[in-house]
Amino acid sequence: CAAVIFRHTDQYFGGKHRDLTHQIVHVSLAVCQRAQQVFLFQTGLKGQ
Fold it and tell me: Helices 2-12 & 18-47, crossing angle to 10 degrees?
């Protein structure tokens, strides 16, 4: 998840703003993990 976001963001900025890219990835990763937890929680409820 994060590697893809980093690669796309890095390409978007043309290899510049690496620190900003890392910040974006850091935030995106937190969102990804949250979304996965919610998704697993919901699918877990459906499974019962």
Answer: 150
Dihedral class, residue 17 (left if φ above 0, else alpha if ψ from -120 to 50, else beta):
left
Containing domain of residue 19, as a range?
2-47
pLDDT, tens digit, for every residue of 3-47?
887 888 889 888 888 888 888 888 888 888 888 888 888 888 776
State how far the Cα of 41 lies from the Cα of 48, in Å rounded to an integer: 11
Number of domains in the chain: 1
Cα(38)–Cα(25) distance, rounded to whole angstroms?
Answer: 20
